[in-house]
Amino acid sequence: MKKEIENRISKAVDERKEELLQLLADLVSFPTVSPPARNTGEVQNYIANFLEVHQFETDSWDVFPKDPNVVGIKRGTDGLHYHSLIINGHIDVAEVGDESAWTVPVFKLTNKDGFVFGRGTSDMKGAVAATLFAAKLLKELNIELKGDLQIQSVIGEEAGEAGTLSCLEKGYTADFALVVDGSNRQIHGQGGVITGWITIKSKEVFHDAMRMKMLHAGGLIKGASAIEKMMKIIAGLQDLERHWAVTKQYPGFAPGTTTINPAVIEGGRHAAFIADECRLWVTVHFYPNETYESVTAEIEEHLNQVAMSDLWLRENPLQYRWGGKSMIEERGEIFPALKMDAEQAAVQLLAECHQQIDKNPVIIGMSKSVTDAGWLGAAGIPTVIYGPGKLEEAHSVDEKLNIEELLSFTKTLLLFISQWCNTKK
Ligand SMILES: [Zn+2]
């Protein structure tokens, strides 16, 4: 039975390759670059129409103005007793930068030497095209599903705008979720990332002329430069980063992956004043057995101790603001980590489907990057990342995707859907 379905799927995908590539060309032609974002309305409309034509119920709502999410659901014939599936992909693409560095058009698909080129081919319109094409072929190959199939085309991933979180907040769920972001068709979990702002703020503002009185004997002014005090905090963060590198580890990650990057610093108001405020923007990486709540608590506890050893900081406590729902609107983001259970039934089935199509066993490991998969996992949905495209290609000049890889992915996806959504709970 499985072999018979596999043959039908493989034949159809190979024969109709041009249709799949045209679909991808259509998606690439919408310049959904983020940031600046607020430009996905048209492509999301295209996707919603496509899904409706192929008998999906759709829902669409603005996560931000002009950036709507789309969810399409194909109801199974016995959703109560059979497994449901979410396939999640983001429709925004990375910034282009200097277009003149490209040797191919950025938003027009170029087919050359076995690859398709264009912004988003690898990250991740190739995978979204494959998902839509799979949705179309289900009907045409008469593959009936007993469980529900849900396709989420989300916005905002590139700028830490959690379109996926918005789907979860609306109540969209399933028994298993596949985030088809580029993983070179390996099955991945991921570490997490949170950004945060650490602020030092003086209760008083002093003119530059007061500096000698706050530094020297007998000056009698208890003041400080927030910029200079931040140097102690940065040194404290480096201590903690080193301590984590030595003491923390997790299978699948190089030791020391848990970095704390002081990415941006802002502070001071004018050369005629003592800096009364300094803000540090940090990016923190953590392992799948940690949460953003636990790591930020560790950072605050450590830095508060550092601050307690400083006579001025003791009275001008550190302020923290962690995470955020958008790098554009709030200058903050969260990508929860994703633990992955290789023994889980859906993961095993996905591995089998991969091997059946690819003839090689799938590699199971940890992503070197972060995706929206962490949100689905954090919501209690067993989730993995599995998609075509290499990490090096994401965000690159002359971004490209191997066509054979795209075809294999489409076949594996169709085979997996046809099996998982027809497996009893
Ligand atoms: Zn991506």
The CATH topology of the largest domain: Aminopeptidase
Q: Spell out the CATH superfamily of the largest domain.
A: Zn peptidases
Poorly predicted tracts of residues? none
What hetero molecules are bound to the protein chains? zinc ion
Largest sheet: 6 strands, mixed
User: Judging by the overall fold, what is the CATH architecture of the largest domain?
Assistant: 3-Layer(aba) Sandwich
Describe the protein's topology:
Blueprint: H1 2-15, H2 17-29, H3 41-53, E1 57-64, E2 67-74, E3 85-90, E4 110-112, E5 115-117, H4 121-140, E6 149-154, H5 163-169, E7 176-179, E8 187-189, E9 192-201, H6 211-215, H7 226-247, E10 260-267, E11 277-286, H8 292-308, E12 319-322, E13 334-335, H9 345-358, E14 364-366, H10 373-378, E15 383-385, E16 400-402, H11 403-420
Parallel strand pairs: 3-6, 3-7, 7-15, 8-14
Antiparallel strand pairs: 1-2, 2-6, 4-5, 5-16, 9-11, 9-12, 9-13, 10-11
The chain binds zinc ion (ZN).
Zinc ion (ZN) is lined by residues 90, 123-124, 157, 181, 394.
